[in-house]
Amino acid sequence: MEQEKVPVQGQVAERTLSLTASWAFFALSIVINSMGNVLTLVTSSHVHPQFLGSAYWTAAENNLGIAVLGNNSMTLFWAFMVLGMLTSVLNAILMHKWDWRRIGGNFIFMLPFSIFIQWFSDIFNRIMPDATTLPMVILYVFINFLGVAFIGTAISIYQRVNLVLHPADDLFQIIRFRYCHGNATIAMWLSYIPPTIMAIIAAFMQGGIYNFGLGTLFALAFQGAITGWADRFIFPKLKHQALDIGN
């Protein structure tokens, strides 16, 4: 797979995109990302038995959130918000510096993202019934995979805009350009170590894990590649802006 040219560590690439365009791309991508995450969760929970699963970070955060907070109407919001900000601390460690502006940007991302997650979850859970026939199951599998594709595409867009990032995607970007020479697929796999730890903790706390399955495997195998593909084919003139991967 073609790799993007990696900047020298410590250098900050020039920002060529206007602030208005940057916020427009960001707004579009955060809606696509939250919708994609919820589509994987809802399709997973509405197919019985639950073999489908959701995107990897989504499943891990949802499981740990339920294990700690219980399954209530605000679990998704608080799970995504708190675990996201803990990930931003890990990013600071990997960057070898504590950047309050970057962490503040993570928070700015997480607040609307967590709200959209809860909002889309309420909507799709109301309008999408349980899959009771084979055609419905096949349709939900397709929608689940489409959700993963939405996530990978959204990651590509707002990582290139690089205005503010989800902490997990900031982690992915740090690993991708600081440690993996721009390779999106390998970086995505490495960035799954923290949610794996979350899932293990949740399994011990609640005696099992949920929303892991076929869709999770699809995300593991292809989400990074989808992000790399979207870099080249979705808004191809949009390049990585002001990339900072530390010293």
Instruction: Measure the end-to-end span.
Output: 27 Å
Biggest β-sheet strands, sense, barrel: none
Poorly predicted tracts of residues = 1-12
Query: Helix and strand string, N-terminal first?
Result: HHHHHHHHH
Cα-atom radius of gyration: 17 Å
Helical content class: over 70%
Number of helices: 9
Share in β-strands: under 5%
Tell me, briefly, the overall form: globular
- Structure class: mainly alpha
Give the rounded overall mean pLDDT: 86
The count of β-strands is 0
- As an assembly, this protein is single chain
Task: Give the SSE layout.
Elements: H1 19-45, H2 56-69, H3 75-95, H4 100-127, H5 134-161, H6 167-179, H7 184-191, H8 193-206, H9 214-233
Helix pairs in contact: 1-4, 1-5, 2-3, 2-8, 3-4, 3-6, 5-9, 6-7, 7-9
Question: Could you characterize the architecture of this molecule?
Answer:
Helix 2 packs across helix 3 (75-95) and helix 3 runs antiparallel to helix 4. The protein is mainly alpha-helical. It has helices at residues 19-45, 56-69, 75-95, 100-127, 134-161, 167-179, 184-191, 193-206, 214-233. It starts with 18 loop residues before the first helix and ends in a 14-residue tail after the last helix. The protein is built from nine helices and no strands. The chain crosses the membrane at residues 21-42, 76-95, 107-125, 137-158, 179-203, 209-230. It holds the Pfam family DUF6198. It comes from Limosilactobacillus walteri. Keywords: Membrane, Transmembrane, Transmembrane helix. This is Fructose permease.
